[in-house]
Each structure stands twice: as structure tokens, then as C-alpha cells.
Amino acid sequence: MPAVVLLSGGLDSYTAAAIANAEGFLLYALTVRYGQRHAHEIEASRRVAGALGVERHIELDVDLSAFGGSALTGDIPVPKDRAISSTEIPPTYVPARNTVFLALALGWAEVLGARDIFIGVNALDYSGYPDCRPEYIAAFERLASLATAAGVQGGSFRVHAPLQMLTKAEIIRKGQALGLDYGLTHSCYDPLSDGSPCGRCDSCQLRATGFAQAGMADPLVDR
Questions:
Q1: What predicted TM-score, i.e. pTM, was given to this entire model?
Q2: Which H or E run contains 75?
Q3: Which of 53, 160, 170, 212 shows the greatest Cβ crowding within 10 Å of its Cβ?
Q4: Helix, strand or coil for residue 36?
């Protein structure tokens, strides 16, 4: 049974894809080069896709940096050392990014005859992104049935967000149980010149807290 998995190269998308794999889905991985600040996460997505043994891995160019409006796609500084709030939308929010990604995944799923899409969004340990919320995922599922030939013909699509209500520590423990090597992943928004994590951005802070609470060493940091 095929499923399209959105694969960024980060810890969450790797875990979500591994859950899909464990549930018996054949994985078709989609990575989007959206004009982000660096290519390290793209390289990580290739490593992760290889580790998962996906059926096919597509890297698609959709350059959202043409719009700007985000610290990940423009000249806005990436915030460092800030207190992370789940109610404040940070400068690293990329306008409509998950909607664009899910629309692309939906198009490929329809071509494949797949009815399942996996995305690694999280609504507990996230840093204020509106397109990570459960109500957003539910709304996109409804849209998928209205916007596709398959939906009009009586089919339905399921957008799986298996990490949505897990803490980062719970996600890491889930990955450990699945035998995942998180040393393959990349999470940092603003890595150093050698690709190593800055340790100070929101994503690095969330990752560090998750590993600490899980009682595990982060293989990217504790070598």
C-alpha cells in the first residue's frame, strides 16, 4: 500500500516516515527545496531516505524565497537563545509552507493511487506554527476530498500526523524503539559553516530538550 511521506531530513519527518514504514506502507518520499537558508537538511533527507529504503525519493524545487517573509527564506535573522512560546508565531514561520508541501504530496499521491500522506508536524513542542495544528490537518483532509478527481469519485485521503500530540522526548523514544539513527538527521535553522548545529535556534533548543528529557545523548552533539 503506497503512501507519500514528506521528508525534510529532520528528526520529526524521519520518525513519521519510519512509523509509516512500520505500519506496512510503501514509502514514496517527497523533499522540497523551497529556497531555505542551507542545503544540509536536503543532504540529510537523502541519508534518511536511504536508511528507510523508500520506493522513490523526489526532490522538488519550489522556491518560496521569491516571496521572502521568513528567516528561513529571506534576510530576516534567525532568532537565537529566545524563550520559546507556543503562542507566538516566530520569524522562522514560512508563510503557507505546509499547505504548499501537502498540496504537492496530494498531487503525487493521486497519481500513485495512494490515499495516505504522512507529515511530521507537532502541536505540543512546536514553536508557534499555525500549520502544525490538528484543526489545520483536519481541514486539509477535507480539502483533499473536494479538490481531487479521486475525492469527487468517492475516494478519500488521510493525512497522517502521528507525532502531532507527542512531546519531543516521546518522539525520540518512539524513534529509538524503531531503531532510528538520529545522527543521519539535521534540525538546525542556522548551522555553522561546517554544517554542525548552532545549538541556539528554536529548533536546536527543542531538540536538545527532547534528548535530555528522553535521557538520551544526541548523536549530532555528543560524539
A1: 0.95
A2: none
A3: 160
A4: coil
φ, ψ at 156 (rounded to 5°) = -140, 150
The C-alpha angle 86, 119, 197, rounded to 5 degrees, equals 60
The length of the chain in residues reads: 223
pLDDT, position 126: 60
Contact 94/72 with Cβ under 8 angstroms? Answer: yes
Is-contact 4 163, C-beta < 8 A?
Answer: no
Strand residue runs (E) in the chain: 2-6, 26-33, 56-61, 116-118, 158-160
Q: Where are the domains of the chain?
A: 2-214
Grid cell digits, residue 195 = 554544517
Directed axis angle between helix 11-22 and helix 168-177, to 10°?
50
Residue with cell string 524565497:
65
The CATH topology of domain 2-214 is: Rossmann fold (3.40.50)
Q: What pLDDT does residue 38 have?
A: 84
Closest-CA residue to 163 (of 175, 177, 181): 175
> 77-93, pLDDT tens digit by residue?
999 998 876 667 889 99
Q: Give me the torsion for CA of 150, 121, 49, 206, rounded to 10°.
A: 180
Q: What is the DSSP letter of 157?
A: -
Distance CA 213, CA 12 (A): 16
Q: How does pLDDT run across 107-145, given as a tens digit for each residue?
A: 999 999 999 999 999 887 666 788 999 999 999 999 999
Q: For residue 88, give the C-alpha cell.
A: 507566538
Compute φ and ψ for 203, nearest 5 degrees.
-65, -40
Rg of the chain over Cα atoms, rounded to whole angstroms, equals: 17
